[in-house]
């Protein structure tokens, strides 16, 4: 006889959502977490990083106030106060994810490690736990690269960065993806020297190259040094000297150049937390990318098991390390596991992603390059610069761009935005792509004036402008003008 209906391994965003829904539907649920409730997002990722970015944004706005005719002294950075703000954000959200809250709901919260003994049994904290169904939501952690010398120097990941009691003197960041760029800008705005080393030809390699140009310019204005196509071949310890009073690390690049800093942040990617689960004992197929699942997130080899969040590797689709994907996965698992609904499957066609720098870079659906690689018929790209947006002009922030990728039938297949709070527009584009709405829906949308979102509407209007101003339409208007 099973001990529980559903065993959930991991109390991050995905695991908490699955546990809450299953419990509310009357199932007996065990929620197993060996670390902090709330997982990476609350404790080491989304929440602390956005809190630190907000502090950096406040400092940057104080420095730039003169553009409004307001003159302020240079901001003084109180690092202890910044850390208190970051901790306060975590502490305010933490009760929603706490063991006490979930136990109050009736969930059996077990604070221990778990690993599989058999296809339907876990060992949890020294005892056996049999389940009808199991959901693996163990998440991911920062990739630790195999770089000569790394074991001889101190380094940071997102799990340790926010514990620094003093600001880094010179932060070297390996990786120019979202985490690396966000932390680069936040620390630069808070008075730290920052160097980003990206091995690929450009930073943010997954994002639209045209939008990345504007983001790069913004980071450089904030004082971030960016080295692209910069492969690190070794790291060495840096001893404190009179000219470098803080000990640190030296990054040795493939071209022979050496960059010395006080701290090294590893931000080159994420890897699923598989090692401690003993998936083989559970008959669960996996790869270095994660737990192998069907499109409905059910294990390809153990029909009692599902995987959600960063650790899930749906066949033909691959993993996505976003908190909002974890929430999406929870809904899919409920439909698949509990209601046995057919044709339930992961679909990332309208998946948004945002790099939360200032300006933010948001992308929904395909980039222009991805759309061209797929050979989409009748592909068209329409842009509207923020320099032509009244709200951006009023706020003296005219740098940025809205870029729409449209197929031959006039449907949006991708949208990219570089703008302050660009992520706030992502939902609008996601709805259009997900519901396959024609671009006319956006072009005809009535938006409040003045807003940055009007740039999206103007970009959509560019698709119809040639049709509305065609010779045929002008002839019709000329004929109709004679009517009373």
Automatic annotation (TrEMBL):
One of its GO terms (molecular function) is flavin adenine dinucleotide binding. NAD(+) binds at residues 175-182, 198, 269. Gene3D superfamilies: 3.30.390.30, FAD/NAD(P)-binding domain. FAD binds at residues 50, 310. Residues 352-459 form the Pyridine nucleotide-disulphide oxidoreductase dimerisation domain. It comes from the Bacteria. Keywords: Disulfide bond, FAD, Flavoprotein, NAD, NADP, Nucleotide-binding, Oxidoreductase, Redox-active center. Belongs to the class-I pyridine nucleotide-disulfide oxidoreductase family. PANTHER family: MERCURIC REDUCTASE. This is FAD-dependent oxidoreductase.
